[in-house]
Amino acid sequence: MPLSANNTKRKSWIEVPKNSDFPIQNIPFGVFLTKENVVTVGTRIGDSAIDLGALQQLGYFSGIELTDDMFIQDTLNDFISDGKKTWRLVRNRIADIFDENNPKLRDNQEHRKIIIFKIEEVEMQLPVLIGDYTDFYSSKIHASNVGKMIRNEENALLPNWPQMPIAYHGRSSTIIPSGIPVHRPLGQTLPPDATTPVFGASRSVDFELETAFITTDANIMGEMIPISEAEDYIFGMVLLNDWTARDIQKWEYMPLGPLLSKNFATSISPWIVTMDALEPFRVASTKQNPSPLPYLQQKGKHSFDINLEVAIQPEKTEPTIVSKSNFKYMYWTMNQQLTHHTSNGCRINSGDMMGSGAISGPTSDSYGSMLELTWGGEKPLKLNNGSERKYINDNDTVIIKGFCENSQVRIGFGEVSSKLLPPFVRK
Amino acid sequence: MPLSANNTKRKSWIEVPKNSDFPIQNIPFGVFLTKENVVTVGTRIGDSAIDLGALQQLGYFSGIELTDDMFIQDTLNDFISDGKKTWRLVRNRIADIFDENNPKLRDNQEHRKIIIFKIEEVEMQLPVLIGDYTDFYSSKIHASNVGKMIRNEENALLPNWPQMPIAYHGRSSTIIPSGIPVHRPLGQTLPPDATTPVFGASRSVDFELETAFITTDANIMGEMIPISEAEDYIFGMVLLNDWTARDIQKWEYMPLGPLLSKNFATSISPWIVTMDALEPFRVASTKQNPSPLPYLQQKGKHSFDINLEVAIQPEKTEPTIVSKSNFKYMYWTMNQQLTHHTSNGCRINSGDMMGSGAISGPTSDSYGSMLELTWGGEKPLKLNNGSERKYINDNDTVIIKGFCENSQVRIGFGEVSSKLLPPFVRK
């Protein structure tokens, strides 16, 4: 099936600002609330939010087999569940509808009023109901950095790390879209040199710069998805800030892994960028040594050249970029993650989300967490306003952006931005 | 509010066999599929399944404020979300309807045909849509046994264990009701003395004897549930078999905890027994030393005297009981688990499930896993048919039962039973 939506020659009759993440070649999927309090599935071109529910009701998807209420929903789960063929038909159709040479909607002012909103007039929601969320630990540079700090240079990586994509289950109930603030968590920590823990506000709230992919229904219970098929079950990607309280994590994580240090909040960008839109930015993944076991071996290019950056914005000041990384630095690919996750027969449903783990680049200004950027607080970062940060301060906003770019097109994710508030006070 | 449903003098006009887990004083809640392929919320008295949706439609709940379709649903989430007052009004009303002295339904043969089914004619479903599942590790005897095997007697418990209820996030998508078989998982393991892992069928599939509690909506994001209020948010309990592949676990669990070793399947009993029904069996919990931090301190009795047992049934033979334990051996209480889980502001929703972790008793015949019962395979168990087990064999059925009993009443959970099949073969 030709991906006509990817045609870089195409222009939209909707204005797309220069350097926009959302040209007509992107066509991401999300869910938004209109000023009239209607929730709908939508897409975005430039700075316009497009109501796909209204488009469907007005007949613009005729000829594509869709259930009547496919887009008049508060999640994308049903659409994602329909599979790759439907995703492509719909994305190509949207590209056609908004093509500058197609007068059908362009010249119908009445329909345009019902279908198109200014992006600042809608409120972005979580795009999917996330049944299960797994967070991987698949950047070798990140895992090595953490290992060096916890252990030492020689034993930075544990023996299982190079053999399989290590991960833990995260919490679905606290995944929130960009824009929702987060309270500094309370928790148990063990002060330096103490033998008894204390309970109070975390002193080291960190971000982790991550991406995540959203799956469709992949298998029945018991069934493994072969790596050659894994990509068929990945709908698209978002940016993810894996908020982490380092002091809580340090005290709680042995032997069952992180829990309260992570599950107070996980922020994601609201537009799911499809794998089809990312296709022009496919690159080879990091060379793997040792060679993985056969069930994790794959040929071809399976990573993506996605520029990532993190900024910290203290209240009433401009943001300071504190890290620039790239998705291509990942060691384990999304296909390997999904295949490994199903290798024991674990069932994967539509709307499940899998995080990459912090994505650290090779240089010290490309690390994916404050833990690494300040090397455990040893080297505080200087912000543009002159203040210093070891971790995130109350009322700082953390902003993660991501985009792909070549000479012909820029496909971006927008951002995931979220402010850290002081601890919650019960009314 | 008086718990008239707990009146032990009361008898039902529905026959209740001797030693039934389901006298009229129990009134658990579940979801079942009838022969006519209708899914409904229900309860059970003796060996009768009772359709609460039909009861509601026929007006038997009049006077109780319920949404029209409260019980005509395929999960209990909405009912649980309504809170403790509704749970009690409905449970008391059911006790009244089925009281031997109440002729209203008893003498209405037409209604009885619509409302009451033989238990063997219905198919039990998962009782709730489980948004998030957390599994604790709260039996001190179990954690010590595992610690002794992995480390040594002196360092059996890690320093954090006595300070807080340790837990990990589990996977919701593979939680299944009693009766559904489970395939032996494949996975990566490191053979003894090897430096490179292999991929294949697990050789050490184990059960863990657990209970779990189901919550109602407890808090908004950021908010901690004080321990004095925790009990208000616990709807009821089920039995849980936390299937575990020990060889996969050993190789994967560092440093982020168990993932594929657990998430191939988790089996639960289908009837949720309410905390109100368990009230007569409230007992003091294990004395805690050191004293927990203030946010985890509670007065009064917060454990329950629930007899637990595990049997293994090889194909075409009788089951052999391999362990007899009791919920009262737990170290951390459910209230402490829930309060700790929300101490960082983690949001708890209706239908969330929290497992106890393996519940081991003080003697070697009361341990909650094959790992402990056979001490890592060193002392195989002899079954009644003469065969031996280190772990669970293909085509063995693992049956967990649980019940409370005093001189006046027996309140039981029924069972969670599930057969281990050979590895899945893709068609």
Summarize it.
2 copies of one chain form a homodimer. Chain A is built from 10 helices and 26 strands.
Question: Largest beta sheet of chain A, briefly?
Answer: 8 strands, mixed
CATH superfamily placement of the largest domain in chain A: Fumarylacetoacetase-like, C-terminal domain
**Quaternary arrangement of the chains shown?**
homodimer
CATH architecture of the largest domain in chain A: Alpha-Beta Complex
How many domains comprise the coordinates of chain A? 2
Shape of chain A: globular
Q: Give the helix proportion of chain A (percent range).
A: 10-25%
Largest interface: A-B, 66 and 66 residues
Distance between the termini of chain A: 56 Å
Spatial extent as radius of gyration of chain A: 22 Å
CATH class call of the largest domain in chain A? Alpha Beta
What are the low-pLDDT stretches of chain A, counting only 5+ consecutive residues below 50? none
Count of alpha and pi helical runs of chain A: 10
Structural class of chain A comes to alpha+beta
Sheet-strand content of chain A, in percent, reads: 25-35%
Pathway (chains A, B): Amino-acid degradation; L-phenylalanine degradation; acetoacetate and fumarate from L-phenylalanine: step 6/6
Keywords (chains A, B): Calcium, Hydrolase, Magnesium, Metal-binding, Phenylalanine catabolism, Tyrosine catabolism
Cofactor (chains A, B): Mg(2+); Ca(2+)
EC number (chains A, B): 3.7.1.2
